[in-house]
Amino acid sequence: MRVKRFLKKGYAVLPLAAIFLTLLFMAATPGISLAQGEYILGEDDLLNIAVYENDDLATLARINGDNKIAMPLIGEITVGGLTVRKAEQEIAARLADGFLLNPSVSIFVKEYHSKKVTILGEVDKPGLYELSGNATLLEIISQAGGLTDKAGNEALVKRVTGPEGSETYSYLRLNLRDLTEKGNLSGNIAVKDKDSIFITKSGFVYVTGQVAKPGAFKYEGGMTVMKAIALAEGLTDKAAPGGTEIIRKKGDTEESIKGEMSTQVQPEDLVSVPESFF
Questions:
Q1: pLDDT by residue (tens digit) across 182-210?
Q2: Which residue has the higher pLDDT, 29 or 261?
Q3: Is the pTM of this model over 0.70?
């Protein structure tokens, strides 16, 4: 007989909006996982193992450096590198081999120690973090104290893809603005052990001359002269927009570019709006 596990809730039927908000909260909150059975076990994780209707086989075991644990009846078994669900199946299969009839095994990860992720760049507390369960990008950003005011729109993820000893790497580029401002959760990826995450620094565009509020404004991809002027709260009555220039750095020199309203600007550009003399 298999044990069915249910997540009991103290509600009747939730509206769809409430369900969505609940799932969003779970996806962004440390320690809560939407798929705990898919967590990949690793060295030093502490497991609480139960066998249905066999309390004497209950085991509290920490995964050793060989990715193994020891259990009554079956001795050592390799579980490191397996998902929680697969480890449950492997233990059940060993117990079924001459010991129990149709055993049902459940594993609860009491302590997570196997997943270490580095996050650097524009977060409040950059560094190395141990993560629990199926942690996501939003969770690691939250644990690192959140984004700084200078954070750009991208997160760069360097990921180990090859086997230990002959590692290769893949690189992911994720749009933070889509994730944090537009609610596009497809970018809220599950982080993996040994991931290195870098939060980019935003560039700035400077607007000066005949605008209402000259200043420095955070650069956004595809920004035009018109958008930069809008961020500076528009032109003054004395402005001569037809003479707008973009001053752009080129190494140790600068160049002047005619600033049409549709011209795209780049980080560190200076948009200068002259005064009309007529």
A1: 777 888 898 888 899 999 988 899 999 99
A2: 261
A3: no
pLDDT band at 36 (very low <50, low <70, confident <90, very high): low
Q: List 117's β-bridge partners, or say none.
A: 129
Predicted confidence at residue 152, as pLDDT, reads: 86
Select the more confidently predicted residue: 243 or 7.
243
Cβ atoms of 239 and 211 closer than 8 Å: yes
Q: Are 109 and 60 in contact (CB under 8 A)?
A: no
User: Any residues with CB less than 8 A from the CB of 238 and at least 6 apart, and which?
Assistant: 210, 275, 276
d(CA 209, CA 225): 13
Total Cβ atoms within 10 A of residue 136: 23
Count CB atoms within 10 A of the CB of residue 11: 9
Can you tell me the mean pLDDT for 24-31?
A: 40
Helix intervals (H) in the chain: 16-28, 84-96, 137-143, 176-180, 225-231
- Measured between alpha carbons, how far is 151 from 121 in angstroms, rounded to an integer? 8
CB within 8 A of 209, min separation 6: which ones? Answer: 239, 272, 273, 274, 275
**Nearest Cα residue to 26 out of 38, 15, 34:** 34
Domains plus CATH for the chain? 40-111 (3.30.1950.10), 115-201 (3.10.560.10), 204-273 (3.10.560.10)
Helices and strands in the chain: count of H runs, count of E runs: 5, 15
